[in-house]
Amino acid sequence: MRALTLLPVLACLSAGAQAKVFSRCELARLLQRGGLDGFMGYSLDNWICLAFYASRFNTRTVRENSDGSSDYGVFQINSHKWCTDLRSHTQDLCQMHCRDFLTTDLSDDISCVKKVVMDWEGMGAWMPWRDHCEGRELSHWVASCNL
Q1: 49-68 burial, b if ≥16 CB within 10 A, otherwise e?
Q2: Nearest 5 degrees, angle CA 130-CA 133-CA 138?
């Protein structure tokens, strides 16, 4: 009986082990290796600024929206258009499950955000980028990272 009561605790600990809040420079290095620096004309500092204002670099960030969709992961990828969460209607253009954006492996996140930014809105698809990053001096986001 005691083992059964530990199962939910172990499941939570296992899920929590996958969560990570990246440091700014650690994330910058990962995104640079993933080919985001200069992708579709957007410098790496745009991506870091977006990730900060979207999720504070936290892989486990999930936000529910008033339209029934949710945003997932470091980049807050939306379930209505880009991934499936089995709860909301989706176009699933990245052909991925939204929960895949909640892990420390950012390869799937990077693959999907490349598709998002190739869409007609570019990085304007993200409100946090429009509100906090667009048209601003962003070099401080990566200046001390020794990239």
Answers
A1: bbbbbbbebbbbbbeeeeee
A2: 160
Q: Say whether 31 sits in a helix, a strand or coil.
A: helix
At residue 86, the pLDDT reads 85
Q: Which segments within 1-147 are labelled E, that is strand?
A: 62-64, 70-72, 77-78
In total, the chain counts a number of residues equal to: 147
Copy the structure tokens of residue 144: 């001390």
Domains of the chain: 2-141 (1.10.530.10)
Question: Cα-flanking dihedrals φ and ψ of residue 140, to 5°?
Answer: -65, -20
Name the token pair of 94: 């990245």
Q: Which range, of 1-5, 31-35, 94-98, 101-105, averages the lowest pLDDT? A: 1-5
Which residue, among 20, 47, 19, has the nearest Cα to 33 in the 3D structure?
47
In 3D, which of 23, 109, 114, 45 has the Cα closest to residue 73? 109
- pTM for the structure as a whole: 0.86
